[in-house]
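Retro notes (design track)

What went well: tokenization of the new backbones is finally stable.
What didn't: we kept losing track of which sequence belonged to which structure.
Fix going forward: every design gets posted as structure first, then sequence, in one message. First example under the new rule, 246 residues:
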């Protein structure tokens, strides 16, 4: 087992943390004087990053980058890199919400289709009544609206901004504005708002424990087959590449 604090897979840096360790690191971020960024790459995102050097740079400059995807863990095992465990982004988000509820912090939900962030906010506030929903905004905007959205978020002064624009758009948005975003933490959360809104169900626990959450999603949404083919492509590349750390 590796004792490395970070591991690289196809040039993408991952922090070698468990879910609990990721949560503890997030808590330290909340007292930082500057914005901290959290990203959650899975095999699909790693493959995108290998076609987009700018995106790879953005990921590698994240303050915490966790392995969200069983394929990342399997690739690590195949090459004895020692990644401790899968760290699902939606579970990291859940722990962050629990902290905000305990500490009376505020969040801003940015992304998703119209109405999704509002629905997610309602469900989140029902479960965590002591946190504050500073604001919500859907993910449909053009380039000319970007600074206005940033101003709207900064005016609300949230402690955490959850950005659900999908990869690589969400990570690039966070990276582009990290010096001016008035928050303690910004995290790319992909489809997590759809889950919180009740539009998408997470896989049953047995699928998650077996690392088959991707398979459950495919059963529920066969239209995802094209996207899901990324996982076997990633694993084939991982198996037949001699050194995957570069």
């Amino acid at each position: 087992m590796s004792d490395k604090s970070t591991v690289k897979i196809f040039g993408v840096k991952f922090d070698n943390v468990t879910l609990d360790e990721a949560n503890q690191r997030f808590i330290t971020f909340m007292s930082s004087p500057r914005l901290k960024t959290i990203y959650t790459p899975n095999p699909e995102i790693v493959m995108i990053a290998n076609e987009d050097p700018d995106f790879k740079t953005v990921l590698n400059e994240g303050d915490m980058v966790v392995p969200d995807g069983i394929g990342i863990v399997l690739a690590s095992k195949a090459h004895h890199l020692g990644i401790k465990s899968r760290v699902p982004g939606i579970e990291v988000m859940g722990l962050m919400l629990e902290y905000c509820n305990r500490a009376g912090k505020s969040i801003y939900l940015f992304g998703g289709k119209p109405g999704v962030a509002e629905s997610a906010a309602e469900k989140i506030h029902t479960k965590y009544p002591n946190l504050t929903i500073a604001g919500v905004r859907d993910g449909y905007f053009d380039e000319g609206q970007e600074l206005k959205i940033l101003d709207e978020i900064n005016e609300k002064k949230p402690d955490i901004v959850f950005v659900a624009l999908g990869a690589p758009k969400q990570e690039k948005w966070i990276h582009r504005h990290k010096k001016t975003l008035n928050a303690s933490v910004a995290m790319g959360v992909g489809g997590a708002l759809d889950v919180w809104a009740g539009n998408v169900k997470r896989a049953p626990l047995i699928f998650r424990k077996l690392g088959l959450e991707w398979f459950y999603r495919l059963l529920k949404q066969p239209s995802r087959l094209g996207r899901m083919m990324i996982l076997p492509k990633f694993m084939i590349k991982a198996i037949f590449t001699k050194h995957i750390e570069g």
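Added context from the reviewer: The mean pLDDT is 93.
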